[in-house]
Every structure is written in C-alpha cells, then in structure tokens.
Amino acid sequence: MSSTAVVLNNIYTGITRYYFPVVFVIGLFTNVANILIFSYGRLRTNICSWYFICLSISQILILFFSGLYRMIVTGWNNGYDYSQISMDLCKFRSYGVVLSVVLSRHFLCLILLDRWMITSRSASLRNKSSLKHGRWLILFSFVFWMLFTLQIPVGNPSAPGSGCGPTPGSIYFMFYTVYTIVIGILPLFIMILFVFLIMKNLRNRGRAIHPSTRATEQTLNHLPIRQSRSDFQLIRLSVIQIMVFIIFNAIYSLFPLYVSLTMSQVRNADRRAMEAFIINIGQCLLLTYAAVTFALYILASSVFRQEFQECCKRLYQQFIRIIHHVR
C-alpha cells in the first residue's frame, strides 16, 4: 500500500470512528423529530408533509444501512468486513443501501411535484395535491421500489469473497452501471426542473388569470389564510432543501458516471486510493445531509418552528401526566 493510500485510509478511518457516530445519533433523533412534527398539528393535513415524513424514514434507513455499518466495519473493527464471509448479509446490506437512497431521491422529487401542482393556475392540478391521491402514491412508491430493488440481491454473485457488487463484464454489471448512473443523475435534473417550474408559477401567481378560469380565481382568493401560509412555508422548505441536497449529494450522485467514463483507463495505486477516498467522502456527505434536515427546517420555516414548540409542549405534558400517574 502506497503512502498516499495509507494517509487517505487513516483519514477516512478517523472520520468513521469519530464523526459518523455523531452524525448517526443526531440524524436518528432529528429525523424522528421530523416525523413527529409533520404528523401533528396543521401540517399533517397537507400531503406534502407526508412526503417529508417518508423522506425522513428513508434517511433513517440510510443512517442504519450505510452509516452504522461503516462505523462498525471501518471505524471500530479495523476494516474487517463481515459481508465478505456472509453473502446473505452482503446482499441484505446492498439492498438496504440502494433502496434507502433511491427512496430518499424519489420522495424529494414527489415533494417538488406536489409543490409545483399546488402553485399551478390549474384547479385540476391543485386538486390532485390531496391526501386521497398522495397516500396511494406513497404506497405505490414503497411497493414499487422494494420490488424493483430486489434485482440487487438477485443479480449479485453468491460466492463468498467475490464482493457485494456485480461481477465485472457480466450482463448484470452493465445493467447495474447504467442503473446507478440513471438513479444518480436523473433525480437531480428532475429536481432542478421542478424548482424552475415552481419559481415560474410563483412569479405568475400575481398576474391576471385567464378569463376562462374564473372559478380558479375564486378558488385562489378564498383559500384559508392558515392553509396558504402552510403551503408557502412548505414551498420554501422544498426549494431550500433541494439546493442543499444537490450540494451534499453531488459527489455520490455523479461519481458512477465518472467511473463508467474512465473505466478503460489504467489506474495506479495512488489513483485508486484517491478515487476510493472521494467516493467515501461522498457517502459521508450523504449521511451528513440526512442529519441536517431538521436544522434546515427550523431555520427556513416559522410554521415548522411553531409546530416544533407545540410538539415539545405535548410531549412535556404527557411526561408530566406519566410521572403523576406513577406517583
């Protein structure tokens, strides 16, 4: 192992040993807090809040399948990978990592899709942003990706010591390469597109509505103030969150494309070590993003801050009642 590889490996080992535990604990508690806040009060009546809840669930899965496992293997166990001797564990972990990542990107896209519909001039589009349609879409999303991601354990080799990835040169290896590139890049383009569409809708919202859509104008003018404020806050959260997501996930999303484009190039030991370090940093940023969403919501949304205060009051009152009951 070259000196560069040793230095980079030591840096990453330090990150997984000391930084990952902090990110894991903070991310676990803050995503649970996100779920509690979005599922109570006025926010729970908005389907976009349920997409945020599903996003937090997928981020908890990322913390467990990717973060916790790396802490155990790299940080505390000196690199001894149990998945290399247990193919069931290997396949289960690969399935969990891919499923959790693709679910998080999927629900981020659904959040933006919902905000685009709610800002549209079309009453029929706005009506589709409802709990009735959204709950079926959530159920379909989970079932579809859980079934589709089964190609990960099915396509991976079954021989111990062959690694958790597909065999190079195989048909499934080609499919998996294209798949990782698509699920890495396509969601980014979809998110950027919907951000521009939302901004366009917001700019057009103050303009005069076409005469043939008088009912739409009346609908807009008679929206409850509280609901309109909640919608605006969720729009703001969505746009800011996507910007932060792109920053934190750029390396992890684009690196498979780089690997496929440079696959034919000969790599020396230092280059392999540098590329491994870069993708590890990309995974580190992915985990960091899963832990900062709560702080992002607190800073960006006054409605979220109010609901957080109300949630804390309810939990405190329940705790006091339990204490009095025990006494």
Characterization of the model:
The protein is mainly α and 327 residues long. It is built from eleven helices and no strands. It has a single domain, classed as Rhopdopsin 7-helix transmembrane proteins (Up-down Bundle). Helix 2 (47-75) packs antiparallel against helix 3 (87-118), helix 2 (47-75) runs antiparallel to helix 10 (269-300) and helix 3 packs across helix 9 (225-261). GO terms for molecular function: G protein-coupled receptor activity. The chain crosses the membrane at residues 18-38, 50-72, 92-113, 134-153, 173-198, 234-257, 277-299. Residues 30-297 form the G-protein coupled receptors family 1 profile domain. Keywords: G-protein coupled receptor, Membrane, Receptor, Transducer, Transmembrane, Transmembrane helix.
Number of strands: 0
Q: Note the overall shape.
A: globular
CATH homologous superfamily, by name? Answer: Rhodopsin 7-helix transmembrane proteins
Output the radius of gyration: 23 Å
How would a crystallographer describe the biggest sheet? Answer: none
The CATH topology label is Rhopdopsin 7-helix transmembrane proteins
By CATH reckoning, the class would read Mainly Alpha
Q: Could you give the order of the helices and strands?
A: HHHHHHHHHHH
Derived from helix and strand composition plus strand pairing, the structural class reads mainly alpha
State the helicity in percent bands: over 70%
Task: Give the overall pLDDT as a whole number.
Answer: 83
GO cellular component, one term: plasma membrane
InterPro entries: GPCR_Rhodpsn, GPCR_Rhodpsn_7TM
Membrane topology: Multi-pass membrane protein
Main location: membrane
